[in-house]
Amino acid sequence: MFDDFLIRAALAGIGVALAAGPLGAFVVWRRMAYFGDATSHAAILGVALALASDLPVGLGTLAVALLMALTVSTLAARGWAMDTTLGVLAHSALAFGLVAVSFVPGVRTDLSAYLFGDILAVSAADLVFIWGGAALVVALLVWRWSALLTSTLNEDLAHASGLDPDRERLILTLALALTVAVALKVVGALLIAAMLIIPAAAARGLARTPESMAVLAALIGAAATLGGLQLSLLYDTPAGPSIVAAAALAFAASATLGKLRRT
């Protein structure tokens, strides 16, 4: 089965969707879109460091994404103006990453694979990393679901319930960094945030409970993966952007259906 590159690609995309969907729900609820951008853009710097030091790309990406996520989380806890700060960090991390990659021999010509993903080149080892990381993210979210949801809805209520909102924010930070690391191969650094936000935003207009929104976001992401791969196969379009385009169509359909329901 794993000899078929399309099956490997589909499994990789579905694995990412299972992690990105529920996590994306929290990104939407907490309005953390720029947070996701900053973390995903830092992945390019992780790629450069991994290639320069002969480490696995996934490990380098995870380390730098985690460092960026922890930095952003710390600044948010200290009351920094996050819209400007995140904008600076996101674009600076991407710029430094691209500059660093240019110093690694033989990588510049393959840079698009790290920016936009190369899902059709996913190997069996990549699948193990993607599904292992996705399983950890889902397990983390299931374990802390109630606490994360309470902290998201009202931090004062979380304090009254004996919860630490900063700790829950850190858990989301860890999950986000891990998701960025596993999604880099599928959609690339520039499109990871889109797979976090678009399926969750599409699910919000259809779901009646937080739990159903998380499940729907994962299903929409998985459907977008299969639809994007089909689009790529039929029209020879880039696979990663095609997946995001399919997710955007799902969002448009969801928005239209939601508007019809209200009329």
TrEMBL record:
Top-rank taxon: Bacteria
Subcellular localization: Cell membrane
GO annotations of cellular component type: ATP-binding cassette (ABC) transporter complex
Range of residues in the leader sequence: none
Keywords, alphabetical: Cell membrane, Ion transport, Membrane, Transmembrane, Transmembrane helix, Transport, Zinc, Zinc transport
Membrane-spanning parts: 6-29, 41-68, 88-107, 119-143, 170-201, 213-233, 239-258
Membrane topology type: Multi-pass membrane protein
Pfam families: ABC-3
Biological process according to GO: response to zinc ion; transmembrane transport; zinc ion transport
Gene3D superfamilies per UniProt: ABC transporter involved in vitamin B12 uptake, BtuC
Function: Involved in the high-affinity zinc uptake transport system.
Sequence similarity: Belongs to the ABC-3 integral membrane protein family.
Protein name: High-affinity zinc uptake system membrane protein ZnuB
